[in-house]
# Entry
Amino acid sequence: MKKIHYREWGIDSPRYWGLLAVLAAIVAVGGFATLYMEHEGHWVTGMTNQVVWGTPHVFAIFLIVAASGALNVASIGSVFGQKMYKPLARLSGLMAITLLVGGLIVLVLDLGQPTRLIVAMTTYNFKSIFAWNIYLYVGFLAIVAVYLFTMMERKANPYSHGVGVVAFVWRLALTTGTGSIFGFLVARQGYDAAIMAPMFIIMSFAYGLALYLLVLMFAFNTDERPLGDVLLRRLKNLLGVFVAAIFYFTLVYHLTNLYGTENHEFEAFILRDGGVYTWTFWLGWVLLGMLVPMGILFHPALGMQRGAIVIAALLVVIGGLSAIYVIVIGGQAFPLSMFPGYTVLESGYYDGVGGLARHYAPALPEVLLGLGGFALALLATFVAVRILQFLPASLADEVLDPHKAN
Amino acid sequence: MKGKFGLSLLMALCLGLCGGLGVVYAGEGVEGSAKADRLDACVAPTAFMRRNHFELIEHQRHITVHEGIRKTDNSLAGCIDCHVRRDAQGSPVPVNAPGEFCAACHEYAGASLDCFTCHATKPTGN
Amino acid sequence: MSQPTDQPSNTGRREFLAGATGVAAATVVAPGVFLQSVANAAPRDTAVSSDVRYGMLIDTSKCADGCNDCVTACDKENGLDMLVKPEGADDELWDMQRPRWIRTVKLRNNLTGHVSTLPMMCQHCEHPPCVDVCPTGASFRRADGIVMVDRHTCIGCRYCMMACPYNARSFIHEAVQFKLTATPRGKGCVESCNLCVQRRDNGGTTTACQDACKQGAIVFGDLKDPNSAVSQAMSKYPTVQIRADLKLNTGVRYTDV
# Structure
């Protein structure tokens, strides 16, 4: 491999500031939506005492999961010694930080008492996976920051591998922790499964890589930097493999559920009778999020077209949001099985009368908060690549791997 | 709902300016109408209380919530019961109303009060 | 021998303390050893102890279909009836967002067709999932078995509501204007039935829902005292826990579901 030179993102000022302005506007709208929700209280959202986590959580969890996945590209380079991925590592580390910050901000701003964040940072219940996650998230930010430093400061380069290994192990713990938020909920039919943790890890691989690919291709395309076919083919194949792995986990998750009679009603709800959740599952999670992208990415001709790769990556993102929506909201909409063997005829508090799902409809401010978090992550990414040397000047095939080119 | 959203955005913007939003104020408290006005001192000397009342309340709050100890000498309910003033009609005036016991000092000191997001601002009898 | 626990230090404080000096019914058998009659004491100034475990027995066969008295009484006792629907809120949505500590549920046995009615509330588990998951420890179990929320450290994350198998918890979705001294309540915190904890700490022996039930379907008391009404009733009738499979050892038990 030739020596890699890194350069600040050099697109012309009008386009750059225009992009920032658009993203900042989305962030601002999300901020106003948050102020509105915090001032009025959660009654202005679609969240209720039955469906207690709503759209903000879908976005937050997606971003947090994608953050740990975005770091994968760097890990492949430094932990698994794939030379071709090394020039990609800086952006990978950067996006791991920005996506995590975006997701955490959405999560925090949806709290009933966001001003008590200091309480959350100082008072712990170590039996709670949530409390552990606070450490895992903060630790992740710190470790990845050090990792970036070891990559960008020549004198610190020798430590890059070691720190990279720590970061990789830490990100596995982090996503396990995020998945376990659901896996530990014994009360709810849809969540109480150990497979949740590994499924979240494999989801993070795919969602993080999809977002990474989109940002990389956008940044290189707008700045007219060369991005070689060999590298792109590797990345898109990797994305395809990750999506296939989600497909496998989804299949196993539902098949094991179908095996146990106690889960039949939940499975019928998600797979057949759940209305919007069934549609989101089949159309969003399965078709758009897995089958179509796999079809594109593994197609011999389509898979090499850049436009098609972009579409596939976008679909993986949409599929990811759908999957998290089905898990988070669908899992709550399905009534608690409080009285197995009984039918609830009447209830003073929505206990799934006649087995009906609990109601949830996202309100506009919730969606705006979630999008604001997304925009904030991108905004921070684009500011950082502009002022610091995150992007390689060229990722042309002959730069990365002179022997294999052509 | 859309119109209300816009309106509330404005309201949210001036959130910091109007801390006591939503509180219905009765008449003004009558000078000398609080129980405390007829006592020599609080549960500790005044100079101590001015600086340290929150530590006392905070300690009491923890033992009340977690251990069920409800002695009223350091409790917020005790503070309110003793320091609340009455208006000309004899009904209690919220302690966080402008110029009343809690608000007067906290406004002057620029300290924000979070107690009354949840706690009653006048005795309710139970 | 009974003794007042507070010695007013000056006359000025006497009036202030008058309401506070509950006379503790503490019996000294030997120096340093106190025997407390838990049910009758006025324990305003003693820490709750794990010598008691509060719980309830609900006789479902006595619970009358269409009766809502326990719910109304709970609302009144705990200030839930003082809540005002926010201006512009959708009626249906607000009904799902307003807090409820107790509710009635009507069930039909799928096999036998038998219909029963029962009140549902926080089951005051010995191993409460809400306490396990709470990141700050705001959701906690008192020594006497009452599961409750410390609002001062609750950050409003609602993870406890995700974890509760009984849908027993409510999040306060709006700013609260009217509240009782004994039951603080504010926007952005989670709350649930606390077995009328203010009555417990002031030496009361009943809960509001129990007092309100004309059928006598609710028996409240100390599960650790073999002579308490609730223990006596439990030893006589077969009782069940809701979701016994989760092995939470609930403090609220039912008969004749």
